[in-house]
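explain this:

___
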Amino acid sequence: RAAAADLLAGLGPDDRPLLVLHPGAGKVQNLWPADRFAQLAARGAAEGWRVLVLQGPADGDVMREFRAAGGLEEVTIAPVQPVGVCVALLERADRFLCNDTGLMHVAGAVPVPTVALFGPTDPAIWKPRTPLVQALRHPSGDLQDVTADEAWQALLTLPSPEPPPAPAP
């Protein structure tokens, strides 16, 4: 949590909501186009969100495509972090956008309001069983057919998490 707090301190005052994105995935068929993640990162920053992008150790190609999309001057791309730091970052996020990947399951456990992008895998089987994680899948089943506007609208309509219970006196 201390490492996450240090990383978030670099994003400026925390009076703005935090949007976290993870454009990577372990399987190529689960990758939504990196340039669409970049569009949403830039849009979030333009609309006043603090935007943080997470990456895994195998996401080099995806992150090169993400950066090449441009318009990311107000977006923070975190270096590869241990899973525990990612958990702590997701605990503080207001919204999370990811592919069908391991961090999606972490987000479901945290929980954080999440849009999980699905392609060929069935969200009825693989989506975490919480209403805070919403699956976004095109009727065609082709992840490439999901537009950036559809993903943005899904992020905006996510339910808010229940506040944690107050500590016992």
